[in-house]
């Protein structure tokens, strides 16, 4: 079964393709009316294994990669959704295999030591675990270190391949960069958005099915699913490898349909599926800020967190009363120098951190903390199960307004955008030329 290239225009009434015409010619696909289907294509009879230019993808490969998605979503995925995910994972593994093969054909080698280093960094940064703990975690959720390392190999291979075969041929002139900087200077004070996107390509005949799949993804995300995990496994855009993150952009840089929908979002909200040329998009607003203007949420805070826990069996009424007494005691602490002693008298725990960015706090706490003076405490927050906490502000370093744009950074961003577009075409060609057998 061949992998389809991006949809071409279909003309049901057009003439048939002349004999001997190249099979990969770009143009109108002609389909006569009154089509008769010979044979039966039953997707339920297909097992999730494939040979990709001779390299096998096993059912175990699919199961272990699928387990990573299920774990990222706490297993809150229906059986029906799992089957759709399974086929998407298989498509991703096929793309990954093509990328690794193409890198190898270009004499690009990713050493095992580099993969091990990346694996250790992922374990620490994303899971806050060492390698041994990460190995145990993956085995516990039904995956394996080999599965994650293969994904790492695919991503590193593709990145290095693009650096060799695509980036050298991407040109951004100084004039283009200067024009962008001039426009951004004019846009100073306007809003800039950090957008996450899941893009699903849809040919005309599959549009409804893809739309329904996109709706199910949105439902899973609204129930607490990981946007980054879904983007990595579902999205067919080049940003899938970074969890769908488009970076900081202005709405004018987005297609009109996405810009209109994004304008109404608040950080943490998503919208979709939105029909765009060639398919559907799901948009998630990660954050927003004002262009070339200092954002108070970039302030670096020195905080002390003071917390108390409740014994088992504590009622809501008792918890509310104790939380009120705790909050009043904290207000009388008279600054960060005295709060430790007050906390000891209450049997409370104190944790200090002087490198917290305000924007990294949950939304409601951001507003509360940014409105506090040094030595003041936040309203109490928490639950009976987790205990009650307050934050005391011990210091604050406000961000400086940045009125200048870095020429090299702007050029790098423009080059990355063009590389991503060329990468999509590159992968499309690899799919088109691949020999794939499903078992």
Write up what this structure looks like.
With 439 residues, the protein is an alpha+beta fold. The chain has 3 domains: 44-167, Triger factor/SurA peptide-binding fold, CATH 1.10.4030.10; 180-294 and 418-438, Chitinase A, domain 3; 296-397, Chitinase A, domain 3 (Roll). The protein is built from 13 helices and 13 strands. The chain has a 4-stranded antiparallel β-sheet with strand order 6-5-8-7. A 4-stranded antiparallel β-sheet has the order 10-9-12-11. Strands 4-3-13 form a 3-stranded antiparallel β-sheet. The protein is globular, with a radius of gyration of 26 Å.
Task: Name its key features.
alpha+beta, Triger factor/SurA peptide-binding fold, Chitinase A, domain 3, 3 domains, four-stranded antiparallel beta sheet, 13 helices, globular
Query: How many distinct beta strands?
Result: 13
Regions with pLDDT < 50 over 5+ consecutive residues?
1-26, 39-48
Q: What is the distance, rounded to the nearest whole angstrom, between the alpha carbons of the first and last residues?
A: 10 Å
| β-strand amount | 15-25%
Query: What is the count of helical runs?
Result: 13
Rg: 26 Å
Instruction: Please name the CATH topology of the largest domain.
Output: Chitinase A, domain 3
How many structural domains can be distinguished in the coordinates? 3
Question: What is the spatial order of strands in the main beta sheet?
Answer: 6-5-8-7
Keywords: Chaperone, Isomerase, Periplasm, Rotamase, Signal
Domain PpiC: 190-287
Protein name: Parvulin-like PPIase
Biased composition (Low complexity): 1-25
